[in-house]
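Hello forum,

I keep getting stuck at the same step: I have a sequence, I want structure tokens, and every attempt I make locally crashes halfway through. Rather than fight my setup again tonight, could one of you with a working pipeline run this one for me? It's a single chain of 552 residues.
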Amino acid sequence: MANDVVLSAALRSNLLSLQSTQKGIDSAQFKLSTGKKVNSALDNPQSFFASQALTNRAADLTKLLDGIGQSIQVIKAADNGVTALTSLVNSAQAIATSAQDAVTNGSGAKIVGTTALGSAALAGFTNNDTFDITAIDANGNKNRQTITLNTGETGNSLVAKINAAFSASSGQITASLDSSGFLNISAASGSSFRIDNFKAAAGTMTAQATASTFVGNLGLANYFRSSGEENAGAATQFQGATILAGSTITSGVLTSGGIATGATKISALNGFNITAATNTFSIAFDNAAPTTGIDLFTGNMTIQGLVDKINTTAAYTGKLTASFDSTTGKLSLNITDATIKSVSIGQGNTTIGAQAWGFGTGRADGSTADNVTETFAVPSTAAVTNATLSSLQTQYNNIRTQIDQLVTNGDTSYRGTNLLNGNSLVTNFNELRTSKLTTSGVTFNASGLGLAAANFSTATSISANLTQITGALTSLRNFGSALAGDLSTIQTRQDFTSSVINTLTTGSDLLVNADQNEEGAKLLALQTRQSLGVTALSLASQSQQSILRLFG
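Reply #2:
Ran it on my machine without issues. Output:
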């Protein structure tokens, strides 16, 4: 164009060089300001997209790393719960052990005579008459020994015979004369005993009056059946009381053809012959006469019906409760009043069968010839023991409640995940979720740990509770070990994932980050080149300046 400025070739060359240098300076300054040599796909597509892929994976793994950290907290919360549960179960174990000690170390059953004996001959029996003493240990094992009475028998010789009989058979029974000459017969700790089956030398049952005379002479009358408890016209006999160390009286199996159910009619039970409304079942306390008889005839009474009737009869309320175990077929009467010293089980009418119920040890000779009342006398220390066991049982059940609350109320959960209440935890280790670890949860409430409600009525039931506790502790320890293993694995993967993220980030940076030293050197060189270019441009324009001086 006519108005264009005409530049010489030298000026145009220098100008282009300066423009190129300025672009270099701008680029170097941008790289230094961003810290990256590749800021977009236009700079270097291959490096840009490779770096972007590495950065994206590092970001995905960073998100997983947060999840891994939360998984660790879930497991730690569960581990804290296991620690607390273990402490509670250990407390329950201590309580059950105390209950076991109370039963095992408590005084055994004991009877004390009220008549002074010694070297004088005893009266009220004939030569070679016998009676039985049956010892029952805390587990229900029985040991029956027959004591033979001879002419001239004295209190001292009777004591020696009883001790000799049981000395050779574990020695559960000990007899002695105290300083006043009174006969003392006692069982070992946790054991009980029964005295019965008084027989004449001819093998027939001695008349009631004669037997009562003999035991009366021993001063043991209060521990034996009075004459009013025998049915008129029945075969004469003498039957003693049963003295229990525990507070639960359990019958025998109530059918001959198998286990009974609660719906079984009592008239169908082994040895029963319910024919009239006078066929009754009654319970008395502390040697009092029975005041309430439960009709077994009207309405075809069932076992469960009898249980319900006992539990709703006002005369028995607060003193004992009845229950029936359909697995064993046995009826149990549990004394709930710690002040009760004895319980008598009676039944009306001889046709029912004397030992059909099977409470206690039964008649030693197995006879069911007539109808009797069985009396169960609680040892003098049993009231204290029962109160102690009742308190310990309450404490044990309170701990079961605390276990349930700890687990089911969410106390052991973390952000809604409770490994101790059936929840499971999945921890993912890669962005594709193909690498993972599943921590399976458990249900560790009282039932889940196998801890049934306490039953501290017998040594056997307490032992069952202790067995359950051992199993619960084993379960807790095994799960705690499993948690520790999973926690170790997750922490290892957490460290590995952190290392991978660092590797990916470093690799991405190597592709796009600028070398600050290199870019700084380039900028300095470009600035120097720019300065030189300006000088060169100035030299190239000097010829035109010379022409300008011609007009000066």
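Confidence is low (pLDDT under 50) at residues 222-246, 360-384. If your local run keeps crashing, start a new thread with the error log.
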